[in-house]
Amino acid sequence: GVRYSSRDLEGNSTESIPTGNYFIQNATSLYVVLTSQGSSVVLSQNVGEKSQRWAVMPTGDGYYYLVEAANSNALQPLDQGQEIGEAIGASEKYGKHTWEEWNLIPLNNGYYQFQSRFNPSLCMQGDQNGMGTIHMATCQATAERQWYKFLNADY
Questions:
Q1: How far apart are CA 52 and CA 115, in angstroms?
Q2: Which residues, at least 6 apart from 22, have a Cβ–Cβ distance to it below 8 Å?
Q3: Which of 5, 36, 44, 86 is the most exposed place for a label (fewest CB within 10 A)?
């Protein structure tokens, strides 16, 4: 796929990210991935379903949309990403709002943090037990806030 640059916390361009479809895995467990369940997004066991495939699509200015393959809804905080603990879901078609846009920050261990463009102090966090809900949290390099997105789902 085509490669686009990501940015670090200071906004500097870093390594390239190939576009394509992926299963997005959380660092807390190698067996769970982001899964769309209607407007909710949870971590669940990877069984290869379409609701578990996400397209990485550049916005054109260094950020990304993460678009769910089942119905083309964008991964986003359900209340614009203004609060710690706010649920993350998939709703609306992508390309309308900055709260649908993510800065994919590479970490030194092959994982990424998904930082909100709308509120850069917040990042996406999975449940600490490795399953369940996804929500907004302060950006720190803990395992539940690290996401590995390069599990190819282009098949």
A1: 20
A2: 53, 54, 55, 56, 149, 150, 151, 152, 153
A3: 5
Q: Which amino acid makes up residue 141?
A: A
The tokens for 69 are: 């393959």
d(CA 114, CA 147): 7
- Is residue 14 within 8 A of residue 7, CB to CB? The reply is yes
Which H or E element spans position 56? strand 54-58
**pLDDT by residue, tens only, the chain of 155 residues:** 444 444 554 554 555 677 789 999 888 887 889 999 888 899 999 999 999 999 998 888 889 999 998 888 999 988 766 788 888 988 876 677 888 999 998 887 788 899 999 999 999 998 766 678 899 999 887 888 888 766 787 76
SS3 144: helix
Q: Where do we find the tokens 């993510």? A: 102
- Smallest CA-to-CA distance from 127 within 72, 88, 80 is with 88
The residue count of the chain comes to 155
